[in-house]
Design brief:
Strand content: 25-35%
Low-confidence stretches: 1-29
Number of helices: 9
Strand order of the largest sheet: 10-11-12-9-3-13
Number of strands: 19
Structural class: alpha+beta
Order of helices and strands: HHEEHEEHEEEHEEHEEEHEHHEEEEEE
């Protein structure tokens, strides 16, 4: 089985590289890829680099299956400095964000608290999924997807009231995710004896190694407990090296990250959701509270919630074969949907996927088929997450 898993994961890595190239955009002319502050660190570690959302990013280092295992059993670090960071401040900040974001900021009234939320267009389509941090008095830090950096900024600026301060801090900010059961001990040792780890979905200041000021958020995209470390771009390589000085910490790339997040049923923008999808169909109604109105797209969300969606994002476990984005999903020989995200799970030793299916076929236990190349493999609709999470969602 180990040999089978290894060959499947190698195939998964190749497929992930192709997906990275696709997500970088269909380009008829060469596009100059951006590089994070950790680019030279990745090269020094022998990382396999590939285009991802306009950035040159590490897909893997020692191997996807090893990196996945390290995060699930010890600790792994990811370069997520390609993400976009915006700081919103001023007396109008709260009301403004209540209008442009779906979740209720009243739930994170305490300084340092954070929440997962969505930004919708007027028709209820998902512009982006976001984490917003209550970073100071009358101040919020927003972290968004790299692929949507420009469009997110344009949308935020177009709805900003007079007097609001909206600053794009992406170019001067670095971001590293430290994830896994060993991560708490690592960050606590670096931050010193007097420092206390923040609660889940909270952020606090720290000084790592006695010299590097950072913000430490107890958030992540793997289902494991861990933190995301926000630093000045110039300090990010120092933080990276500090983390790698611990023997239990390994660098991990996009390949492992994609598997880890899908095992948890975490959605990926551009695959599991986009502007053509509403939050209810995407299974994200929980970040659109029924008690909250007045945000952009709220009426559409309420209408879909009342009428019920026509399709719903379902999660599939296969009998064999690796499902990939775009593969047809069939029921009784008829195509009923396409795979949104798909991969091989090292934990389950089988293929896992997400797909938008008619509501009647998205029920737990329904049997379907996925066309994997020239073959068809059986699959069953299951409840997400595929494996038990170690970290619980925040507010």
């Amino acid at each position: 089985m180990a040999g089978y898993a290894g060959s499947k994961m190698q195939e998964a890595g190749c497929a992930r590289s192709r997906l990275c190239e696709k997500e970088a955009g269909e380009m008829t002319e060469p596009l100059e890829l951006k590089r994070t502050p950790l680019y030279e660190e990745h090269l020094a570690l022998g990382a396999r680099m590939a285009p991802f959302s306009g950035w040159e990013m590490p897909v893997q280092y020692m191997g996807i299956i090893e990196e996945h295992s390290a995060v699930r059993t010890r600790a792994g670090i990811f370069d997520v400095s390609h993400m976009a960071e915006f700081r919103v401040s001023g007396s109008a900040a709260f009301d403004y964000l209540q209008h442009v974001l779906t979740n209720d900021l009243e739930r994170i009234s305490g300084l340092g608290q954070a929440q997962y939320t969505l930004m919708l267009d007027d028709s209820g389509g998902i512009i982006d999924d976001i984490i917003v941090y209550h970073s100071g008095d009358l101040e919020y830090l927003i972290i968004t997807n790299a692929a949507n950096h420009a469009s997110d900024l344009e949308w935020l600026q177009s709805h900003a009231p007079e007097g609001l301060e909206l600053v794009d801090e992406s170019d001067r900010t670095g971001l590293i995710a430290l994830q896994g059961p060993g991560s708490k001990a690592v960050i606590s040792e670096l931050a010193g004896q007097d420092w206390q780890l923040p609660s889940r979905f909270c952020m606090k200041e720290a000084v790592l190694g006695g010299s590097v000021p950072v913000l430490v958020a107890r958030t992540g995209y793997t289902g494991e407990d861990g933190v995301e470390i926000v630093s000045r771009a110039s300090d990010t390589p120092k933080v990276w090296r500090m983390l790698l000085s611990f023997s239990e910490v390994v660098p991990a790339g996009l390949g492992a990250r994609d598997i880890l997040r899908l095992e948890m049923g975490y959605a990926l923008y551009g695959s599991d959701m986009d502007r053509d999808v509403d939050p209810i169909s995407a299974g994200l109604g929980w970040v659109c509270p029924k008690s909250k109105a007045g945000y952009i797209g709220a009426e559409k969300v309420a209408a879909v919630r009342a009428e019920g969606p026509k399709k719903r994002l379902a999660y599939l476990r296969t009998d064999g074969g690796i499902p990939r984005h775009g593969y047809p999903v069939l029921h009784d020989g008829t195509e009923v949907g396409m795979v949104a995200s798909g991969t091989f799970s090292p934990v389950l030793q089988t293929g896992i996927a997400s797909a938008y299916l008619p509501v009647g076929l998205a029920e737990i236990g329904i049997e379907v088929e996925i066309a994997v190349r020239k073959k068809r493999t059986g699959a069953q609709v299951v409840k997400a997450p595929f494996i038990e999470p170690k970290a619980q969602p925040g507010p």
